[in-house]
Every structure is written in structure tokens, then in C-alpha cells.
Design goal:
The chain has about 525 residues and is α/β, with parallel strands linked by helices.
């Protein structure tokens, strides 16, 4: 069947039919994409399609059939093997002899290394020094050369390009290459063969856009009625912003939690395909991604990596908004290369993302019996967290987590507390509260003066924390410091400085020179309640 379709495509000339029955002109490379996908050589490395598994629990909750396309079950636990293998399989003899090189901090590196080993091609992988040890070890397992360079992907990619220019090795791009896109597009062909006829929508994660572009190009040409929804983290939404702007944009800052889809700029080819074929793009929060990881575990007993659960979080967001198309919904579970050290953070945030936990800051009077009165007010609800320390003789601020059934109950609790005379602030959407402040309640000091607070991100590698502290210098006294390692490529720090108002412009200039991503958190609500 693939061969017959390929022959038919090769005989096509002129314009192609559009979804509305008319005709439209295509750039030649877009015209050829379906042919490239049909003739991709992915079956050589994945002789059987990855499963399309039912998700009965989610199906019952959402009122329609939900199916999981298990790209987490490839030999490298990610869809990236498809594009990497197809790119290498199409190399000519001189290119194979020269070898291949790729820059990657994760799944693309494993895909290229695995494919090169299968095809007997010399391979070199450049990874940032911040790459988790488990991912470096996974790449080295295939017997390829690994070089650790720089603190981020940009530095690794720059070194990769320099080595390729000097050696003649072929660079294997992670997403913006027609053979790579075609390899990823085979996911779409498999879904169309596996899914029920009432298939209504497919949810696909977007980073650089290779998977979304290839899948959408195939599905929209063969089943134009099926809706394709691309999903990105809210802090890494380069594709959504690019489509809205009509051209590729470059993000100033990219969130690091779902590092597999964290890109500052999408590809040229992937942008053109996605803006043509995607029906919609959605963004999801870190908490929603954590909740989706939990959902996938309950359905499959598999722990997805954050980027692997992005599409599932998007499905739930669409269902909550009431925009889920009729018919069966397919979700791409795109990867399961999870660092074990990140599981604690995921479980901590999953209940909030599922709207099963309300996080509140409540002010109560500082007198005997006030604590008991507050507990009677919240009733027999399950308390998930309670943080309190005496701060003054007038009033007390408490950080409380409560188990709830959803957003409506959380709002009702806050309204009840307000009606009873308590000052209550919902911290459920306050990232600083959930990442730092909940671990620091009771940290006030009457000796602190002229304090300002900043949150930082810095590359997570040996010696990075010491370098960060050294870079801060000693001009201003550090009044507060909180750091947690979440097993990610970048560490997160909350830091307080004692800085007289006339010197704050100097502090801002000094922080800018550091080169670390930072944000002024001095007026953050949670910080005002519990730290200042």
C-alpha cells in the first residue's frame, strides 16, 4: 500500500487539492512531504508500529475514547529514533564514510547514536555539560563518541557546527530537516491505520516542531477532517507565538521543566508546515504537565518525561474548555526518559495541576485558641500541608494546603474563610510559592532591612552553585537564600539582598552582567506573607 501511494504521488503534477475542495499551490518541498513520509525507512528500525493503547480511566472521565500513541516504547523510549534513523538511512556513501555529528541534550542524541550504531556509521554527539548523567550514559551505551561542551544547547550546537566544518561530518539536525520530519511523520501514518474510523482529534507536543509538522502534513492530506492540536508549555510557546505573528519569533526566555520541547525558535520548514496544517495550538502549565504524568502512570504504569506528557495535558485542557472535537482522541506520549531525581517535584505539583489541592495563605489573629478556630472553620477536609511559625504578637500568616475536588471547591473554601473574617490569598497559581516559599515559612528576621528578592536560574553542573555565589560578589549582604535541585538542567534559586534604595539601580546592573536569567520577586504575594 505504501508503494502504490508513493507511485501515485510521484505522478502528480501541478497544484494539489485543498481541504475545501479547491486547488492551491505548494512549495515543492511541501508537495513532496507526503511522498517522503510514505517512503521513509523507519520500518527498518521499528518493524512493528508502536501501540495505540486505550486509556479507560481518562476515557471515562472525559466522556469519549482516549487512545495513547506509545512513542515512549521505542528502543530509545522516544519518537526521536524515527527521524534520526530516516536521515541517516538516506545518506550517500561519501557521507556515511565521513560520519555524522549531532548536538543534543537528550532524546535526539540517543536517536542518532542508536541509528548510527545500527547502520555502522561513525558518530559523534555533542552535549551540554548540564546534561543529566543518565542521558549521557544512555548515549555512551551505544559506543559513540560523546563530548560535553558549554552550559546549554546553543553552545553545544555552535561547537557541533565547528567540528562538522573542520571534519566534513554530516550534522543531523534535531527537527528542521526534511528527512527528519518525514521520519517523525510516520507516526501519523501508523495512527491512521490503527485508530477507529471515528477519529476526531490528535494531540501532539511541539518543541522545534518536527513531530507536529510531519504528522500534520500526513494526516491533513489523507484525513483532513481530523483536527490536529499542537501543545506547548506556556513558558516555551515558540510555535504558537510564531503562528500568531506570521513569522518565526525568538523567545527571550524558555522554561526548562519540559526540556525536551524547550526551544527558543522553531524550524523554518516546521513552521511552514505547522502554520498550514495545525488546527489549533494550546499551552499548558508545569502543574498540568505533572498531573498528566500522573494520569499516564495510572493508565499504563509508565512514567513519562515532562515533554512526553505535554500532549496529554493539552487534551485535558481542551476537555476543560469544552473544545474537544467529537470522536476518539489520540494523544502522542512522546518520551519516557525521566530523571529519577525529578519524581519528587512531579508528585509535589501533580495534585495542584489536577486541581486536587488548594494552596492558601491565611492571616489569623495571634492569640490562644485562634489556631483551633481556624481548623474548625475549614472543617473535616484533608489537610495536605500546614506551615506556621510565630512572627508577631498581632497576627500570624499560615501556609495551608487542602485536598479539594476541583477549582470550584477551592474557591468556595476561600470565600468561606473571607466571610468568617480571615484574610485569604489563593497561591495555587504562584510559582514562587510552590517552588520556594512553601519550604521557607517562618524565615522572617526582624534584623533584615532594605531587602529585595530575586529568583534565578543557573546551569546545573558540578561547581555551578559555587560559581553562581562567587559571581554575585560581596558588595551587598545576602539576607535569604533557597536552592533546590530538581534533577533538571537548570537550578532555581531564591535570593534576598539588603540593598538601600539609592543602590538598587547598581544591583540591577550587576545582576544583568552576571548573565543568569533572573526576576525581581520583591513584591510577590507569597514572599510578602511569609518571608518579609
Amino acid at each position: 500500500r505504501r508503494t502504490a501511494l508513493g507511485v501515485w504521488l510521484e505522478g502528480r503534477t501541478g497544484n494539489l487539492p485543498s481541504a475545501d475542495g479547491g486547488e492551491m499551490e505548494y512549495p515543492r518541498w511541501m508537495y513532496e512531504m507526503l511522498k517522503r513520509v510514505v517512503n521513509a525507512r523507519v520500518a527498518e528500525v521499528l518493524p512493528e508500529p508502536t501501540p495505540l493503547d486505550p486509556a479507560p480511566g481518562l476515557s471515562a472521565r472525559l466522556g469519549r475514547s482516549v487512545l495513547l500513541k506509545r512513542e515512549d516504547l521505542t528502543p530509545i523510549f522516544s519518537f526521536k529514533l524515527r527521524g534520526a534513523y530516516n536521515r541517516l538511512a538516506h545518506l550517500d556513501a561519501p557521507a556515511r564514510e565521513a560520519g555524522v555529528i549531532a548536538a543534543s541534550a537528550g532524546n535526539h542524541a540517543q536517536g542518532v547514536a542508536y541509528a548510527a550504531t545500527r547502520l555502522g556509521i561513525r558518530c559523534r554527539i555533542v552535549m551540554p555539560r548540564t546534561t543529566a548523567a543518565i542521558k549521557v550514559a544512555a548515549v555512551r551505551r551505544y559506543g559513540v563518541e560523546v563530548e560535553l561542551v558549554g552550559d546549554d544547547y546553543a553552545a553545544a550546537a555552535e561547537h557541533c557546527a565547528a567540528v562538522a566544518a573542520a571534519t566534513g561530518m554530516t550534522v543531523v539536525p534535531p527537527f528542521d530537516d526534511l528527512d527528519v520530519i518525514a521520519g517523525q511523520g510516520t507516526v501519523g501514518l501508523e495512527i491512521l491505520r490503527q485508530a477507529p474510523r471515528d477519529l476526531g482529534s490528535i494531540f501532539v507536543p511541539i518543541g522545534g516542531g518536527g513531530l507536529a509538522a510531519g504528522l500534520a502534513a500526513v494526516v491533513k492530506e489523507l484525513r483532513p477532517e481530523v483536527r490536529i492540536i499542537g501543545v506547548e508549555p506556556v513558558d516555551s510557546d515558540a510555535m504558537a507565538r510564531s503562528i500568531a505573528a506570521g513569522h518565526r519569533v525568538v523567545l527571550e526566555h524558555v522554561g526548562r521543566f519540559a526540556d525536551g520541547v524547550a526551544v527558543r525558535q522553531v524550524g523554518e520548514h516546521t513552521f511552514e508546515l505547522c502554520r498550514r496544517y495545525l488546527d489549533e495550538t494550546l499551552t499548558v502549565t508545569t502543574d498540568e504537565i505533572c498531573a498528566a504524568i500522573k494520569d499516564a502512570f495510572e493508565e499504563t504504569r509508565t512514567i513519562l518525561e515532562p515533554s512526553g506528557a505535554v500532549a496529554l495535558a493539552g487534551l485535558k485542557r481542551a476537555a476543560e474548555r469544552g473544545t474537544l472535537a467529537p470522536g476518539a482522541a489520540v494523544v502522542i506520549t512522546s518520551g519516557a526518559n525521566m530523571n529519577f531525581t525529578r519524581l519528587g517535584y512531579v508528585t509535589e505539583r501533580a495534585e495542584i495541576g489536577e486541581h486536587r489541592e488548594a494552596i492558601l495563605a491565611v492571616t489569623i489573629p495571634e492569640r490562644p485558641g485562634a489556631f483551633l478556630e481556624f481548623c474548625r472553620t475549614i472543617g473535616e477536609r484533608s489537610v495536605t500541608e500546614f506551615n506556621y511559625r510565630l512572627a508577631s504578637r498581632a497576627e500570624a500568616h499560615i501556609f495551608v494546603g487542602l485536598e479539594v475536588s476541583g477549582r470550584a471547591e477551592a474557591g468556595a473554601i476561600a470565600a468561606t474563610l473571607t466571610a468568617r473574617g480571615y484574610t485569604c490569598t489563593d497561591l495555587g497559581a504562584d510559582d514562587l510559592a510552590k517552588t520556594h516559599v512553601r519550604h521557607m515559612v517562618g524565615g522572617r528576621s526582624p534584623a533584615v532591612s532594605d531587602e529585595v528578592l530575586y529568583s534565578f536560574e543557573f546551569p546545573e553542573r558540578p561547581g555551578a552553585l559555587m560559581q553562581f555565589l562567587t559571581s554575585l560578589g560581596s558588595r551587598w549582604n545576602i539576607s535569604l537564600f533557597h536552592y533546590r535541585n530538581h534533577g533538571a538542567a537548570f537550578g532555581r534559586v531564591l535570593c534576598g539582598f539588603e540593598v538601600p534604595p539609592p543602590q538598587r539601580a547598581d544591583l540591577g546592573a550587576a545582576l544583568a552582567r552576571l548573565g543568569f536569567s533572573c526576576s525581581d520577586e520583591t513584591d510577590n504575594a507569597a514572599a510578602r506573607f511569609f518571608l518579609r
